[in-house]
User: Fold these one by one.
Assistant:
Number 1:
Amino acid sequence: MLVNLKEILEIAEREKNAVGMFNATGFDSLQAIVSAAEELDRPVILAHAEVHNKYNDIDMVGPAMIAVAKKSKVPVCVHLDHGVSEDMVYRALRLGFTSVMIDASALPYEKNLELTAEITKIAHAMGVSVEAELGRLVTGEAGSGESVAGKAEDFYTDPEEAAAFCKKTNIDALAVAFGTAHGFYTAQPKLDFSVVKSCAEATGLPLVMHGGSGVSEEGFKKAIKNGIRKINYYSYMSKAGYLAAKAEIAKSESGYLHDVEYAAMRAMKEDVKTAIKIFSE
């Protein structure tokens, strides 16, 4: 069942839990994500990140994501994750994505607000939900170790600024910065849950956690308790697939890529199931 982000987050708000968003970088991960959600009978957000477009172009993988969502037995939102260019956002809208994230968080506040408001007006006219970001994670979206200068707390979302931003842009969900990071963690992150609580109270909107992979189960539960309703999770799902593929290559001499892809798919599915269970409690 294909739904938009606003609809799927209403489920999370009603149940006081969070919906997982998982990036599909190929047909193996696409199958892993949706089959995991169906097996657990839980809603899920299926995403294509602009940074992953070089691996699978949105014009090819997007229609497949939408088709799978429509056939799914559970609510599925098809979402553009971290759309940093207007071109990518408009491509997602034309393809029929039911949610887009316009990530202008690297721009000055006023520019972020102006662009986000413009995208939101267009998307809402098409029945599409919009997520935006205020504040920044200290690592880039690619999660490959690149970072911006400064301490994590220098980039935390300001609740008062967030309230004004959400009111003026009319977005449906806000990604907030409170200590998480993209990619793999070398140490347990120090999360400031008071930022989440203050932003939730100030905006009245569902909040989004980026950099979810690697956060402890306790950290997820505290974030959800304070207002997080969408959790972005990719790196450790991908790592599970990578390790399974590596093991399959080491033990098998079949020579067939599909054997490796199938092993990766099964491992990613189990990792997604574990994440969904934690987010749904």
Note: Confidence is low (pLDDT under 50) at residues 139-149.
Number 2:
Amino acid sequence: MTVFFVTFGCKVNFYETECLKKLFLKNDFSVSDTAADADIIIINSCTVTSASDKKIRQTLRKMRNENPGSLIVLSGCYPQAFPEEAGKLSEADIVTGTKNRSQLVSLVLEAAADRKRIVNVDPYGKKESFESMRCDSFTNRTRAFVKIQDGCSQFCSYCIIPYSRGHIRSKPLSELTAEISELAANGYREIVLVGINLAFYGAEFGKSLTDAIEAVSHTDGVERIRLGSLEPERITEQDLIRMSSVKSFCPQFHLSLQSGCDRTLAAMNRRYTSAQYSELVEKIRKIFPDASITTDIMVGFPGETDEDFEESLRFVEKTGFSKIHVFPYSIRAGTKAASMKNQISASVKSRRASEMTLLGEKLEKDFLKNQIGKTVPILFEKENCTDFHRGYSPNYTLVKIKRTSPIKSLRNSVFYVNIKEAINDFCIGEISE
């Protein structure tokens, strides 16, 4: 039987899909590149916003209409957070969540045997262990994403993720190093460590994210270690000093902020103030002078006044992020913020999002201009057109160089590049002689 995967959401979801592909291949399935050729269609869902849920339902209906004979699986965060709602979606033959992924093959075989509909969403308990998942390759990627942490216990007032992922839990260091060794042996030179609340890696067994970074750095063949999105609460100065001593560590920090206004942060149930966030940024820039610091900003949170928004805007400008992801608050059923008073109108949220985005674009251009004149190692990825090779610096600056004739692929190669120019959201460079 052939399986086709549709994946929504974050890098953790993409990692889990790759692991599931390997699991199905190991059990004598084949993986299809198209839904039309598949006996099984697996939708690995996201539920971070209500818009995500709507998109999932639309995709499910589309897949059922276009593939009436296929067995369709709806899995992931959406069913886990809203099992009753997802269970009623008759287009899915199997509905299952984020827990016990390894059982998906047996569920598919059971449903395929007699076309029996299965709804199996197992709730999380408070003392779950990390589910072992392992991947030794990634489809069409030069860097490897490795999930080392799952779950979140913070319960921000706008966020449904603790309900879709359970409490924090971490991959044991022995499992992590074994997986990294396989990836390095298969030619992956850059490892990206990801998680649902990555900064809390190892909290339940007395370890830290820095311990994971150091363990990965001891693997032969790993030339770069990069981090996924981080919450700022658990990163200490001592952690940063230890990270700086790891030669392969990439100084790119995506520190989720959400708002630069303390009143809004408190309403969001974020566990830090703007001053504490600034202090962490200052420490990062002191220890990593060429660090890239990126973030997420939410606008239009319930009760956010014009003054609150202006305070957030000023904080973002003062911090000087290299890139920001701006998104308007949307009501998320099942969260505390959904029932808060003083919800913000769509027009106001749109205006604020536009204003914050314009600031973000200016800051990004300023950051890229500051890269001009530097000579940095670039790990090249796939060519995006016939004219350029493209790749990333350690601080995740996208750099392009002109392709020369005869054309030779630089994919998965590292060259030092002199950065000559900044254009839009990337830089132009030349390979250093």
Note: The chain has a mean pLDDT of 95.
Number 3:
Amino acid sequence: MKKFKELPFVKKVGMNRIVLMFVLVLMYIVFGILTKGKFFGIKRIISSLNYAYFLGFLSLGVTFVIATGGIDFSIGPVMFCCALISGYCHLSYGLPLGAAILLSVVIGMIFGMINGFLVSYMNVPPFIVSMAGMNIAKGVASVFTKTQSVSWPQLAAGGWYRNLVKVGNVPVGFFILIFFALICGIIMNKTRVGRYILCLGSNKEAARLSGVDVKKWQWLAYVICGIMVGIAAVFFVGAYTTVQPGYGDQYNNEAIAGAVMGGTSMAGGIASIGGTILGVFVIALLQEGILALGFTKDYQLIITGIIVIVAVYTDIVARRRKN
């Protein structure tokens, strides 16, 4: 194993990513065998990808927050809040569809700005901020829509936004998600923004003493997360069209699990955008496989919780060995 880890290809790609790729292939084969071949086919793949798109944007956003050593449990309800308010404005007030999509991103960004300000400038613990943000997002969405569900227009009724997810059986959303992941990877690894965000997670006090404006960069991480959450809302309705008030909590853990499973450390300072995407695909395939086997989504929640615990424990052990 040690020799394998020393191979140039393994060093370049990363052992964690290789393991996740192997897990993806193995899961696909196992689910196919257990369903007697019914799992194999384009329909199952498309269904898994539909789930992976919005979850991928959520995970990309929360990766930046976790990299600072923070956390945000409000991303799921905020995503629903973005979709509900922007969709309601389109249906009830005649807001053009393109403007509604932009509004969704703006709402997500506003939540990110507020959360980031409270954490970085007001020194409110991230856990408290995210819990409050979760409740506020649910309440605002329910009040604005009068507790009514919102159904975005179907493709036949002018809902061109659904082409962002797929055109026929072409998974357009996959290419868009990968494009955004590449942008996030460049920001995280090749720019000053990413370097400072990672520095905050590694040692915030040392970064501050070296002259880094830690409050600004910590705030910016939450803003980036908010923008990604707003985009995630667009892809959620692009896949499922209908959104109900009071929901979204279940996607918090799944998004965080995707990021942590992909190699982003819950202690901060270490982040892997590519690993996050692979982790999201594992979660999405797991969800589809459980449904294909005839189990309810509750089983996925149990398995996702176990994955989070194992991933965090593995990260703790790895850090101890490194130290």
Note: Residues 165 and 175 are 9 Å apart (CA to CA).
Number 4:
Amino acid sequence: MGAIYRREVGAFFTSGVAYVFLSVFYLLSGYFFYAGVIGSGRTDTSPMFSSMFIIILFLIPILTMRLLSEEKKNKTDQGLLTAPVGLWDIVLGKYFAALTLFVIAESVVFIYSIFLAVLGDVVWTTLLGNYFAMLFLGSAFIAVGLFISSLTENQMASAVASMLALFVLYLFDSFAVNISNEYISKAITSLSFYSRYIEFTQGIFSLPSVVFFLSVAFLFNFFTVRVLDKRRWG
């Protein structure tokens, strides 16, 4: 797994994907930080993190679009699949490479905290809660994007399909509101990524939500392993 992880991290930077992702992330997070936090003269970063949900939804597919689709397009997937390495090692190596870049991106919040210290006391419990909320959300979204990348050899198709899939997950709350059946509505709401994420930005720590995000990450990584397993023997 280590070799694949190092290769993928390097590929992010040699391909330029890392620079595009980090530049856009820093630009937009900086804007929301200024507009929602600095501009209002407050030290609570929750408004910035609330706004970043939809941005992450569209940015993460940039990270995941090439992870497996490029292997398939360049016909290097069979060499990788027949190498003396487990499928979980392949998937997790690529997954953690994308997650590492995401952590680098969102860790800019600690630089923002320096500016917050000028305005007043930084509420570290709230800031760290928001930070880990975004990390849990990103870990789930990256797993979804990696799974979709395993289904196609076209990077743009992978990116668009991932954006669409994540956007549908974002709309779960809207779907639930428009369903009259209470049980179905509650079932859909329980699968809502947005409401679980917003709980953290409002200062509510929810262990079930943490388990939910980590379970989604595991589940979609498992789906990706099954896709590769089928391709190996197909």
Note: The chain has 13 helices and no strands.
